[in-house]
Specification:
The chain has one domain. It is about 75% helix and about 0% strand. The chain is built from 5 helices and no strands. The mean pLDDT is about 95.
Length: about 130
Amino acid sequence: MASLWRAILYGVLVWLAAFAVAFVIFPLRESWRALFESIMPVVVVMATSFFAALYFRRVTKDFLREGALLGGLWLAINVIIDLPLMLSPPIDMGLVDYLADVALTYLVIPAVTIGIAFGAARPKRPKVSPPG
């Protein structure tokens, strides 16, 4: 990885962004669960996109490999931090429910990092001046 420490820091910040939003909108989880479940993946994608864009500003080679490693690392970080919180009170979610509900949502993380890596790996086209 180009910067393991930066990757870890950004992975924790991705989790923290999702946690902060979930904490604020937690009452929706009971009163309007569908809205809560719709908001959270959007937040994860936004946070992942933001921090992946920051991370890739300093990557100069092996973009797709870097994107896959970054996505896998961030997925692991999010599950490792999240799992004990979700399985204990006050949430007290069962493991199967956690995997089907929350952990499945985290699969968007490597999808986003690999997508951003793919875009970063494309050769830069020279700027063309308009005719005239």
